[in-house]
Design goal:
About 35% of the residues lie in helices and about 20% in strands. It has helices spanning about 30-40, 50, 85-90, 95-100, 115-120, 125-135, 140-155, 180-185, 195-210, 240-250, 270-275, 345-370, 375-390, and strands spanning about 1-5, 15-20, 55-60, 60-65, 65, 70-75, 160-165, 170, 220-225, 255-260, 280, 285-290, 295, 300, 305-310, 325, 330-335. Flavin mononucleotide binds next to α12.
Length: about 400
């Protein structure tokens, strides 16, 4: 599967075109809206989320609730567009209109794409950069991830993203027994953390950052269960699925690190403390005693739950001024802003879930075929039987 997104943060809408989805997959707008709604929730977001009510419109690739195998086109409207039509319109402006909307953005925010994007594309108005570098685009990445999750669910693969850390506040270990429980607990929490006591501390840390005009980051974790052995491959660098997942996660706005399983911690431990011992039983076949390696060996899934973590830096737009330099006057200034999120880690957990789901579903279809659900199902059943008898 592949997808392409288009659209600006304050333009009319965001679009994603998805190619390679098998025919006969049940798919409705509600299946996608569910995840768009989850992405919009979450403690620490700014005023923009009060303006938007993200709903998808399917315009291609689905008939009467089922995919046809043709490219799928999904659109999400920006309600904020009505305030930006003049500034963001595609038509050339008359002289009169131009004088009305001529205020250019010339003051780059440290940590955002503004200055580097302006230099690279030679824009004197940095709106041309920030409109596309905005994480508003993650709306349609979540829509694509929702389609991926529909495919995975058909084959018993369940996935959930949650918040592990906000700043220095962290929840210890994985205190849940199933993805269903994890989902229920994180959906009940405003910060998407499964531990209610830690959730409250996280909210206080977000409040404190906001009161100080600051922003705060954190770490999210995505867990997927029911993933069959052998997605991805050890034979070539660009077929290693852990590497592909790492790219998907790192491409989320403000993500600065990715771990699979215990990740960086593995470098500080000895081999005997890291590698998961192999066990066998007639009913379950081969398995592992532990899952420190997060379900991957040799770039392939090994049948254990897939565990991926992503680190998000604090939001760059701050109410507390940081020093920057105006690109026209070259004068030093301290940035003042109109609105921003102070923490988007809970929302980013949903985006990260979508990124991991997308890579897992793509690798799944590469292994089992991608024309029609019926053929894939036969292939999967046959494979499961062979794995059991290996
Ligand atoms: C869900 C989400 C919401 C975000 N909201 C904001 C925001 O309100 N203000 C801001 O400056 N950055 C926000 N960001 C982060 C910027 O989009 C990101 O820092 C920017 O695109 C620069 O890219 P980089 O940080 O990956 O280098 C958000 C990121 C995510 C994932
Ligand atoms: C719109 C979303 O996030 C936006 C991401 C973002 C940024 O710079 O990345 C900046 C903010 O937008 P605005 O400047 O319009 O307030 C966030 O609200 C969204 O997540 O749907």
């Amino acid at each position: 599967m592949r997808f392409l997104t288009a659209g600006e943060s304050h333009g009319p809408e965001l679009t994603v075109i998805i190619e390679g989805v098998p025919s006969q997959l049940p798919l409705t707008e509600e299946d996608i809206n569910l995840h768009l709604h989850r992405r919009q929730k979450g403690y620490g977001r700014g005023r923009r989320m009060q303006i938007e009510t993200d709903r998808v419109r399917i315009t291609a690739g689905v008939r009467h609730g089922k995919t046809t195998g043709a490219p799928i086109a999904l659109h999400v409207e920006n309600k904020d567009w009505k305030h930006w039509e003049k500034i963001m319109g595609a038509q050339p402006l008359t002289e009169e209109e131009e004088s009305e909307v001529k205020r250019k953005i010339t003051r780059p925010r440290p940590g955002h794409a503004d200055l580097t994007g302006a230099i690279k594309y030679r824009h004197r108005d940095m709106r041309n950069v920030l409109e596309r570098s905005s994480a508003r685009e993650t709306t349609v990445r979540v829509a694509a991830g929702a389609v991926a999750q529909k495919i995975l669910k058909e084959f018993g693969i369940d996935i959930c993203g949650h918040v592990l850390e906000i700043g220095v506040i962290r929840s210890e270990g994985t205190a849940f027994s199933s993805i269903a429980e994890l989902k229920a607990r994180t959906e009940a929490s405003e910060v998407r953390c499964f531990d209610p006591e830690v959730s409250e501390k996280m909210k206080l840390a977000i409040d404190e950052a906001k009161e100080n005009g600051d922003s705060i980051g954190g770490i999210v974790e995505v867990v997927a269960t029911g993933v069959p052995v052998g997605l991805g491959s050890h034979v070539h660098y660009d077929r290693k699925l852990d590497a592909r997942i790492a790219q998907g996660v790192m491409s989320i706005n403000a993500f600065k690190g990715v771990e699979i399983g215990i990740g960086f911690e593995a470098a500080r431990l000895l081999g005997s403390q890291v590698h998961d011992e192999i066990i066998y039983s007639e009913e379950a076949g081969f398995s592992r005693k532990t899952n420190r390696l997060g379900g991957f060996e040799g770039g392939m899934t090994n049948g254990m739950p897939v565990v991926v973590r992503g680190a998000m830096k604090p939001i760059p737009t701050l109410y507390k001024p940081l020093q920057s330099v105006d690109i026209e006057t070259k004068e030093v200034f301290s940035a003042s802003i109109e609105r921003s999120d102070s923490c988007a880690v809970p929302a980013a957990a949903v985006v990260c879930e979508a990124a991991v789901a997308w890579e897992l579903a793509s690798a799944f279809l590469e292994k089992f075929g991608s024309d029609t659900m019926e053929d894939i199902r036969q292939h999967v059943e046959n494979y499961h039987e062979k794995v059991r008898r290996f």
